[in-house]
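Service request form, structural biology core

Requester: graduate student, group of Dr. S.
Request type: structure prediction, single chain
Budget code: on file
Notes: please return the result as structure tokens.

Sequence provided:
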Amino acid sequence: MWIPLAGLLLGILLGLVLQVSVSFEFARYTAVGIIAALDSVLGAVRAELDGTFSERIFLSGFITNALVAVLLTFVGDRLGLDLYLVALIRFGFGIFQNVALIRRHFL
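Core staff response, request fulfilled:
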């Protein structure tokens, strides 16, 4: 459980210390990638609390979620549609669901 959280914390700290600047063209891709990664990390924490965590499932889900979200954003850009919103809504829903399940575990 601590490895995904430590990675998330390390990434946030590095982003703040290095003051990474993202150009406007890539802002949507970055936002979608971060939300997909956060959904995967919270899913891993939930799975660890449930006793079903698997590193293989976490890593494959992390990479697959990020790739699908970025691909959906790319296709939407080419079609002139805001398909990145679909990914943000789906992963946002997953984040809230995982947080609710983690909260219930501690209550």
